[in-house]
Every structure is written in C-alpha cells, then in structure tokens.
Amino acid sequence: MTEHTTSHEGRQPTAARSHEPTRPRQQDADVAAAGAIPAPPPAPAVSPGRSEGDRLRFVGAATRRIARGIDLDEIVLGLCRATVPTFADAILVFLRDPLPVGDERPVVPFVLRLRRTDRLRLVDEEASDEQPEPLAAQLCEVASGGALAEVLRGVRPVFGDSAAARAALPELLGPDRTVPNGHRTILAPLRGRRRVIGAAVFVRRPDRSTFEPNDLLVAAQLATHTALGIDKAVLYGREAYIADELQRTMLPDSLPQPTGVKLASRYLPAAETARVGGDWYDAIPLPGSRVALVVGDVMGHSMTSAAIMGQLRTTAQTLAQLDLPPAEVLHHLDEQAQRLGSDRMATCLYAVYDPVAHRITIANAGHPPPVLLHLGGRAEVLVVPPGAPIGVGGVDFEAVELDAPAGATLLLYTDGLVESRLRDVWTGIEQLRERLAATAELTGPDHSPPLEALCDDVLDMLGPGDRDDDIALLAARFDGIAPSDVAYWFLDPEEQAPGRARRLVRRALERWGLEEMSDAVELLVSEVVTNAVRYAERPVTLRLLRTDVLRCEVGDDSPQLPRQRRARDTDEGGRGLFLVNRLARRWGATRLSTGKVVWFEIQVPAAPPE
Questions:
Q1: The pTM is what?
Q2: Model confidence over 218-237: pLDDT tens digits?
Q3: Distance CA 212, CA 47 (A)
Q4: Closest by alpha carbon to 548, among 586, 596, 577?
Q5: How far apart are CA 200 and CA 188, in angstroms?
Q6: Rounded CA gap, 188 and 154, in Å?
Q7: Which residues partner with 542 through β-bridges?
C-alpha cells in the first residue's frame, strides 16, 4: 500500500510550502480515472492555515449535525455530510457487527462491517489499470493483538502514514483493496461509553493540503460525538424494539371468529416517538355463542401504562371466562386497578353480544360511548350510563341492554379517535357519527359497508393535528343467528337423558335437512350428555345452533371441567371425550358461575350445486 510518507513532526507553516509544485491537471484526471475520487466542486476546507476560531466553529456545527440524528443511519450520514468535503474529500465508516447494546458482552470475534462510504472507491492494487468497481459492504475480523486492534485500543486518531496505520489499514480494508496512491488519511477509532464500536477513515486528495496535527484533534472530536450518538441510537433502537414487542404482545394477534358476528380492529400509536400506550381492545368468545367486546384506555404513554393495560386486559379475559355480567366485570377491574396503585386510572367499555337473542348488554367506566351504524345507514350514539373511570373505587357500574339488529355495526373506540387539541370529545363523536353515516350512503340502504374498509375510512377522518393520543378501534358487524337455526331443550339428570337427547337431535337434524350428520352428532351428544348427567343435580341444557357449522352445547351445574384421557383396555368408560376429539371439528369446555358448558362443532356439508 502506497501512502504519503512525509513526517508530521515539525511541519512548516502553510506559507512556507506555498511554492511546492502543484499537480498538473492531466495528472488529476489520471487519478480520477483510476477510481480515486470524482472531482467535486471547490469547497472551503478546514486547513492548517485557518484560525482556531474557524476550527471550533466547524467542530461545533459538525457535532450539532451529528447529534440531530436519532437512528443509526441518520448519525452516520450526519458524520459524512458534516465532514465531506469540508474536512475531508471522502470517508469510510466501519461499525462493530453486531453492535453491543448497553452493558451487553460484545460478540466474539470482534468484527467490523463497512457501514457507509462517501465519495471513495478503493482499488485493487494488482488491477489498478482496470475500471474500479464500487466498494461493496465488507467485513473485517479484528485479530486479537494485531495492528488494527492496537490502533483501536489506543483510541486516539492516527495519520495514515504512521507506522501503526500503515500496518492497520490493510487489515481494515482487506488484502486486495487500498486507498489510491497519494491520498492522505486519518484513521480514527470510534469509542462509545464502554468500548470501541468502530472506526472512521478520513481521506484527502493529493491536490489538497495535507492533514495537520490539529486535524487529529478535530477527527477525535468527530469520532467521539459520533460514537456517543451511535451508543444512544443503539439503545433507542433496543427500547423501540422492546416497545413494539410489548405493544404487540399486549394486543391480540388476531381476532376470533365467533358465530353470528364479524370483527375488525385497528391500533395506531400516538407517534413514532411514543410507540406504547395504554389503549387496548379485545374480543372474547363466551358460552352460548356470545362474545364479549372490550375497549379500554389507561392514562399515559409509557411502559408503565402498557404494563398496566396488559394486567387489566388479562384480568378482563379471566373475568369474562367466568361469564360475569358486564357491570360485575367492571367492578372487579376497578378493584384490580386499585391494587396496582392509587394513581392507576383507566376507562373501559365492556359489552356482551348475544347473536341468538339479538341483544347487547353494555357497561361503561368513563369511556366514550359506542356508535351503532344501522343497516339503513342511520348512525346513532348509544345512550350508555357513563360511569366513573376504573381505579376511582367505591363506584357502582350500571349496565344497559339494547337491541342489536342483524346487519348493524357497533363501533368501539378510544378517545384518541375523537379528541385532540383542535376539537373536544363531543365534537369528535359527532364527526365520527356523520362519517359513518356518509360511508353507509355509498353502499346503499340494503347493504352494510365492508368492515375492514369501514375501519380504514374512520381513521381517514383524522387530520394533521388530531394525533395527540394512541387509538384503539374495534368494529363488530352483527349477523345474528335466526330463531329457526336454534334448538333448545332441558333434560332431567336421569339415565334416560342420553337416549332422549339422541331422539331430539335426530328430529332437529331432519328438520334442517342434515340427516346425513345424524350418526356422528347423536354419538357425540350421547357421550357429552352422559358425562353431564353423571355429575349434575339440576336439569341439563342441550342446544343446537346451525350456521356454517353445527354447534352443540351441553350445560350442567357441576363446575368440574372434563379432561381427556386415554382409557385402558380394561376400563368400561373414559372414551367419550376421545371420540369427541376425533370426530368433532373443534370442542371445548368453559366454567361458568353456575356450572360449566361443554361444546363441540361439526362442519355442515356443503349444499350440492343446483
């Protein structure tokens, strides 16, 4: 590798070197053709002849530009833009791969990856007459005890023609690449708060003034600010990743598809700098083909808010599985919030939709009221008792039961959708109602707007100044289950109950034209009813629901849930749930406050083409 070898000790002032011969223009063209640096327009440079004040102003401006970056690429780009062409004609930036975060132990071996190069092409010394290829991303493994490791350990920048740099640069750049002949370089280690995280190579063309000792101080300042900025960027990136993962795990990965209702949801963070918040939504299947719809908002935008939200959401799921009334669920959530701390406040709306009864029961804890979009296009804000926020304590919650007509759409949301600095919450709710009505007009009075498109259209109402808070949105389209598709019976807990259940199921399937399913359904119903009668003291309930699947639900007053087990050859029983598991499409058991429900589903055969 050929480098400028003039000693840097005892350099003469610039004026003393003013009579040095200049490189002819043709020689400059030859250097550019060899792949050194494309000739940029003239630019002011930080040179030895400049005053100390000029240097300080340059360093101040450069460090401010570097500090403006938030993520890793912005900081590295800031370094390049701040130094090229003012301080150097080209730059190479190498960073540790992978970059350690905080107190993490660095990965061994120590590997540097070229992160960015600006205005420089390294050339192959053995093929310098050929057209140079653009520099590709490269890796450099720093050998322990090698020349490059010694320079990096010393932390201080060094001139490229020093003995240490002459040995270290080939290791950094690779055996087949080198800085073009005649170019001056500074090799500056990048040291963060705890360790060296990379290196920067500053390059000047031969026709420009050489680097001076004061330039080492400038390079050191640039390297220090860049390294500290990279440390912050890596920590910020890790925090953002944790925030994203936390938010993702706190919210449902996907919504269930319960019978008789279609669901869609959206979540928007307040901003890129506030990725976590306390808003959440949930949809929880309940016994009897019902579904609980939940939306809530914990105060604040922090990890703490998200953690509290996760605890409240988990508590709501647990309470929902107990099939408690909506007002009772809010009461227990209020108690849980008080246990978490005196300042843990949240709003919540909890609703239970029954597709068979076409009714919905709603309880509210200080949350904005839901909006119901009817099939004909009319949108109304439901009158729901507002209640006090969760965490206040000592407040009773009131539930209201309303009609949920088929084809209607219920929209639950958090206040970030309707409230901002530019409008109060009630103005936003009225705008939301008008937006839903206008969207419904586009699809006509006999059709409901597509649910996913409706959610997107609702979010489009947000203006530039309307994103002060994160937003959770849950939309439910009520399809319902027609009374003709439901069969319901009570069975006395006696030995004759399984036989009676088989006869009732057979007649219902004949009425629905599903006789071909009789054998399998009767067998499974007999097994589940037999198990229920064995432990029940009160009448057993049996219900069939016909949609795209046939769902059978058997309820009794025993809280003990059945468990599938493999029966031995000598056992007389214990094979009922094994048959259910083999023949049913899905099955499950849910504990209720009054007992339990065991259910299974079988796919309904497709109707033959006409």
A1: 0.67
A2: 999 999 999 999 888 888 87
A3: 8
A4: 586
A5: 5
A6: 10
A7: 489, 554
